[in-house]
């Protein structure tokens, strides 16, 4: 992890054309948006989950079902608090650790558009902005608590009031805020994001 603290922009061999960084609270639709974008953009895009290295480590060291942890069901909720506590300790030592691991993949090396579907802290956003200046667009997903409950969300003390859910609540500089409340906001947001994709792909 020490190397990560010394990592410079020049050491980043891969430079994407565009990084779309998505954030939002649980059950606001951030993962759904990420999947929609990657499905629509196709082979030019890579879907990046910053939580994947955390879940991979947890599955490997605790003998758990990795695919279930990566899914959107109740299985991962059993282990969420412990995974959060461990990952927060790692981040305190090296804020960019999971960003580096999550983007160290063949898909990211080969594809010019990255869709990061689960940014949770200002340090996540700033890491991408630092290494890829001028190539990052930030998106915040919003949904009403009523709709989130309809999607299966219930408030959990220690999770929904923790830094992993709240650290970006006051982030001031979103390029796009998507109101995902079944009023057409999601589709409008996707249209806006596609204008970004077209611009960055054509800007050679």
List the helices and strands and how they pair.
Layout: H1 2-6, E1 18-24, H2 30-41, E2 45-48, H3 52-62, H4 66-70, H5 80-93, H6 97-103, H7 106-110, E3 113-119, H8 122-131, E4 136-142, H9 145-150, H10 163-166, E5 176-179, H11 185-202
Parallel strand pairs: 1-3, 1-4, 2-3, 4-5
Provide structural commentary.
GO terms for molecular function: ATP binding; phosphomevalonate kinase activity. This is Phosphomevalonate kinase. It is an enzyme of class 2 (transferase). The N terminus is likely disordered. This protein has a domain of 140 residues: P-loop containing nucleotide triphosphate hydrolases (Rossmann fold, 3-Layer(aba) Sandwich), CATH 3.40.50. 48% of the residues lie in helices and 14% in strands. The longest helix has 18 residues. With 204 residues, it is an alpha/beta fold.
- In the predicted model, the low-confidence regions spanning at least 5 consecutive residues are 1-6
What sequence of helices (H) and strands (E) makes up the elements?
A: HEHEHHHHHEHEHHEH
Radius of gyration: 17 Å
Shape: globular
Q: Quick one: CATH superfamily of the domain at 16-51 and 99-202? A: P-loop containing nucleotide triphosphate hydrolases
**Strand line-up in the sheet with most strands:** 2-3-1-4-5
Described by strand count, sense and barrel closure, the largest sheet is: 5 strands, parallel
Number of E-type strands: 5
CATH topology group of the domain at 16-51 and 99-202: Rossmann fold
Q: What's the CATH C level of the domain at 16-51 and 99-202?
A: Alpha Beta
Strand content: 5-15%
Helix content: 40-55%
